[in-house]
Amino acid sequence: MSKLQVHQLNQLREIFGRFDMDSDGSLTMLELAALLRSLGLKPSGDQVQVLLANMDSNMNGFVEFDELVSTILPDINAQVLVNQEQLLGVFKSFDRDGNGYISAAELAGAMAKMGQPLTYRELTHMIKEADTNGDGVISFNEFATIMARSASNGQNMFI
Q1: pTM of the complete model beyond 0.70
Q2: CATH topology of domain 79-152
Q3: How far, in Å, CA of 141 to CA of 18, rounded?
Q4: Pair 12, 64: CB distance under 8 Å
Q5: Domain boundaries, the chain
Q6: Which residue ranges does the record assign to the EF-hand domain (predicted)?
Q7: SS3 (DSSP) at 39
Q8: When you count CB atoms within 10 A of the terminal residue's CB, does the N or C end of the chain come out lower?
Q9: pLDDT digits (tens, 9 = 90+) for 1-37
Q10: Which top CATH class is 3-76?
């Protein structure tokens, strides 16, 4: 295995871990869909279901890391992993306290620093749109999803 492949495998393991929300070593259909969206793909629910069925070699209804690797690594583009790393860097620049979440205060501060101060209404709208689980903060998973959606709409919500 070349150094590039080892590096790609390590990056893929890190990405897998970020989307394995319950840390059980497998991805549910929703976790798989979020991972794919973070990579800039836009699969429909049916496409994710078919993909999961094709990837799930042990037929347990989940995708384990080795199943993901055997499906993705032959086709993975190094640029996809670079994009994911860059996205993580942008996320970390918003996540000032490094707790893995972007709070409303962190979002307001980052936007003001970029010369884009937000009104309270704009701030609450951005948080509400990105915060899909309703916990009041934006996780990397939610950030990646909203950035992919914004990119596909030709706009960028945060940057």
Answers
A1: no
A2: Recoverin; domain 1 (1.10.238)
A3: 7
A4: no
A5: 3-76, 79-152
A6: 7-42, 82-117, 118-153
A7: coil
A8: N
A9: 555 467 777 777 888 888 898 889 999 999 988 888 8
A10: mainly alpha
